[in-house]
Amino acid sequence: MKEQTVQGEEQYESVSKTLDQFTGVYDVDLLKIKKELEHNWDVQFREFHIGNTGIRAAIVFLKELCDKEMIDKHILKSLMEGLTENPTIIKGYELQQLIKNEVLPVSDLFEESTVMKSVGGVLTGATALIIDGIPSVFILGTAQGKTRNLDEPISEALVRGPRLGFTENLSVNTSLLRQQGENQHLAIIKMEVGTRIKKELVIAYIDEIAEPDLIEEVKKRISKINLDNLPESGYIEQLIEDNYLSPFPQVQSTERPDRVFAALMEGRVAILLDGTPFALIVPVTFNMLLQSPEDYYERWLPSSLIRLLRFLAAGITLFGPSIYIAFVSFHQGLIPTKLALSMMSTRQGVPFPALIEALIMEIAIEILREAGLRLPKPIGPTMGIVGGLVIGEAAVQAGIVSPIMVIVVALTAISSFAIPQYNAGISLRMLRFIAMLSAALFGLYGIILFFLFLCSHLVKLKSFGVPFVSPTVPYRAGDWKDFMVRMPLKMMKRRPKLLKPKDTIRKGN
């Protein structure tokens, strides 16, 4: 064996020192792969002879990523026991086809002639098969990745609806889309992203509904991504959005397969990345960020009421503290007399103006919220509740803030939790501080001025060419059936016009 190794090294140095192609010389090809993988301790090399032919072969695999039982029973056993022909009769191309078509009972099998691509396959869980006399390597699909169970999404819990969420395995996620129902028009296109660390990405759409220009635009933006590594779909979201300076998300992220499939049936496009349970949906409009899949599972009257409450909660989240600051600092005359007297009595002894008072409580609430997310799950909620009560009560007793300010801040915090999309809630929470500053400087006029600037930004904002505040601007009367209220399903006969779907009619209505 040592003599063979020395001979192989000599041939490697003299014949193919800089070539990336396999030669068909067993010692040279095996040494090429060893040179590339020598710094990986978990790579296994298993050399053997094919049957009683005397033909040398070897398999290369990662012991922690591969299914060892499959390698033993379906690869090694088949090759070592299944071929007994004379090596002078079977060799080269004939041997290659015989092994490929009759010996190996493996469904995922392809040939690779370059060393680097073969090494890449091994490092992602495949098994490379090297056979003497064959100038290519068989790449066998033996990956056995560690996956978690299909659980309900933590960030998008529902009272009524499916309990399945995406996982970190891309093949599992695409199968969850397939399981939504039989549909031969569901297209799933595979792409590769990352320059140093390659990852699989798929684009999903319904080819008889989605607009072709939208599909091409999604492909174009993804193909322009040039990063070493994309560990999570949030990287893609930031790189493909229209305006990266906007505080509003222009790409929707979700863990729910039912939400993704519902978006596909409207004519939207989904992006799924291997290694993350969060899928992306484009294009997105502002009203989508305030909608929940549960809106369509319940009857239209309660769903419409809850959706209106979400819009109200979004308004309170954005303008609650700023309206309080404006009334207390500038427009005391607009407050009813009894309420004004009550507020004045509670503010007696408070040393700070309304803006500083609000900032103290808002910053404290944001810190508690972040701490509750980062703490271990058993104590996180308890810490958040207890911390909020203790800090609020202590601040009132110390005379730092007034009781009514604690009520306003608590109502604002609760309203922010009513927004279904976490990233949309973050956007409104950030803008809330700008609204508070505007109210402290100019009162209600500052709030109105801030609101007008915000509206002008939203009107100009687009997501993959679709106006962000549609169907408000531009106005589309037909799309208002699923905007602030959700009309009965029998009345929603058409898909949203803003997406320009190829098939505008929802079949079966």
From TrEMBL:
TM region positions: 269-290, 311-330, 389-419, 431-454
Major localization class: membrane
Keywords: Membrane, Transmembrane, Transmembrane helix
Keyword Disulfide bond assigned: no
Protein's cellular compartments: Cell membrane; Membrane
Membrane-protein topology: Multi-pass membrane protein
Family: Belongs to the GerABKA family.
Full protein name: Spore germination protein
Source organism per UniProt: Lysinibacillus irui
